[in-house]
Amino acid sequence: WYQQYVEEDFEGALELMREAERLAPSDSEVLIGLARLQHRLGAFSEGTRTMKRAVQLDPKNTETLVHLSNMLMRQSRWQAAREVLERVLAIDPSHFWAQYQLVHLTIQGDRNPDAALGLAAEFGLEPRYLHAWIATTDRDYDRAARILASVPVNAGNPFARDLRRDNLSASVWVEEMRGGDPEPLRDSLAVVLSSDPIQTDPWNLLREAEARIQVGRVTGGWALWDEVVAEIRVWNDQAGSNSARWVAARIAAQFGRPEQAVALLDEAVGKPADGIWSVPDLTLDPQYDAIRDDPRFDALIARQQAYEDEQAREAERDGPWLP
Fold it and tell me: CA 302, 229, 132, 176 torsion: positive or negative?
């Protein structure tokens, strides 16, 4: 099943996992794999309930608990996810991913950036990207520029090229917004873009397209964007494709394709995504400012809010998530 999963034959992998569940109904590892496949194929509530069964079989397994919290967060079930993460940290106070998710839940679900920064400080996490995001939502681009300039990128990290690209891309945009001189940053970004390798998942390819547009390789950037958007619209991974739609919509809004931005958001809002996207992304992020006055934008926010409210009600109906 794992080979089929890697090859994105999710239906074939699901069939094998169903057989594994029949043969070993009390094997938590089987249930974890089954839950992940259900989620990939868009059966989000079913997948989350399957992960809950895995937790009930092994209630002190922190990795299973983190899987469950991640699924709950992707469905905007913020309070249920918080309870699961707090259980993880009660078992292992130094669990990095539980700390990281709790910080992001606090800013996305609770909409409380100050509390999120407090948690980041308490856990000893690198809070600078969080500070930068908050600075941009406050339209304090001078502060955002200073923060981004101070963020280290570990050259030994296999994703260092993409981290450096994303940091420079954000810095170019911030410098433009503050009325500074973005050309030196564009030059540095162009150097990064000329290096290999590129991570070829859709999210990274979209950010690659964004960076190309920023350094003046506009035709090539939009060609890559168009290629990825066409791919995600037929991608057999509903959670992943919705997440990529959010990224693609933000780029389209930022760089002069408002109609395509609205169309992609229309496809993405009100559905789980393989990432944490919620109403604050639409209401706070200034990169959506270009479409904020579109009469359809408020309707998109309302749909996303209605989805998040329904997920909260569904979480209550499902009852306790922890044994």
Answer: negative
Q: Which amino acid is at 81?
A: A
Instruction: Give the list of residues 6+ apart from residue 166 with CB closer than 8 angstroms, or none.
Output: 207
What pLDDT was estimated at residue 259?
A: 97
| Segment 242-249 long-range contacts (CB within 8 Å, at least 24 positions apart) | 242/267, 242/268, 242/271, 242/272, 242/273, 242/274, 243/203, 243/273, 243/274, 243/275, 243/277, 244/202, 244/203, 244/206, 245/273, 246/273, 246/275, 246/277, 246/281, 247/202, 247/203, 247/206, 247/207, 248/206
| Other CB atoms within 10 A of residue 73 CB | 25
- Residue-wise pLDDT for 19-78, tens only, equals 888 899 889 889 998 998 888 777 888 888 899 999 999 999 999 999 999 888 887 788
Q: At what angle do helices 78-91 and 295-318 cross, to 10 degrees?
A: 50
Question: Which residues, at least 6 apart from 80, have a Cβ–Cβ distance to it below 8 Å?
Answer: 72, 315, 318, 321
Q: Is 270 left (phi over 0), alpha (psi -120 to 50) or beta?
A: left
- CB-based burial label for 50 (10 Å; 0-12, 13-18, 19+): buried
Which of 233, 268, 238 is closest to 253 using CA atoms?
268
pTM of the model: 0.78
Give the distance from CA 314 to its chain's centroid.
22
- Alpha-carbon torsion (265, 101, 307, 230), positive or negative: positive
pLDDT per residue as tens digits for the range 78-103: 888 999 999 999 999 999 889 988 98
